[in-house]
Hints:
Blueprint: H1 3-31, H2 38-66, H3 75-100, H4 102-110, H5 112-121, H6 148-179, H7 185-212, H8 215-231
Amino acid sequence: MSDLTEIIATVCLLVGGFLIIFSTYIFGVCKNKNHNNFIMFNTLLITYDWIFYIIFNLWLWFFAADMFLNPPLFNLPVLFIMIFFNLLLTVFILRRELNNNEQFRTWFQEHKAFCIFIAFCSLGSLNVLHVLNCKFNYMDIFDAKLSFTAEKKIIHASVISLVLGDIPRLFLLGYLNMGLTDFYAVPTTSFFLTLLAINFGLFYRLYESMVRDYEIPAVQEFVISKKQFLEA
């Protein structure tokens, strides 16, 4: 395809995907302004980015084969490290909830398929796990009753995911795009999606730490326990 066709395809993929994601966010806001609808926006963006990154890797290997070039093997370690650590952290967090959180265990029995799908999406970024507890549109499937500890662990683990997965992937995509002599829709779209996902992810982490402030309940629990101890 010509460069113009590739550019049009890139714009359509980016703008079209963003409009769908933003429309879902607006729908959630209209239904209930009190719930954290930005979680759904961020999750859909991360999922779109992750799926497109898989498409990019498939494109990269087939494109390299068609051009009689050796596939860029340095892309594989980044992909495997990201998947390995995100999988490890996802399994640890969800397994802990299953063992210690009866409400989550009950929810999991009813929504196993959805939870497994979200776990797959979390291989791209652990922030996706927040959607399990976002209460989007009052739907039970988005009300997993994650514990306070699990919420904190997701936030902390997402920092590891950012350092080991997102940032190296962004630099890799930038390097590969600069190395191409022609304009291609797939690598360019994947690069900008990753860039958007990282930036919105950083904003979301800031929101979690400053606005929602997950650390406050822990302090309150300690104060209550101390007060009860003194009264006793």
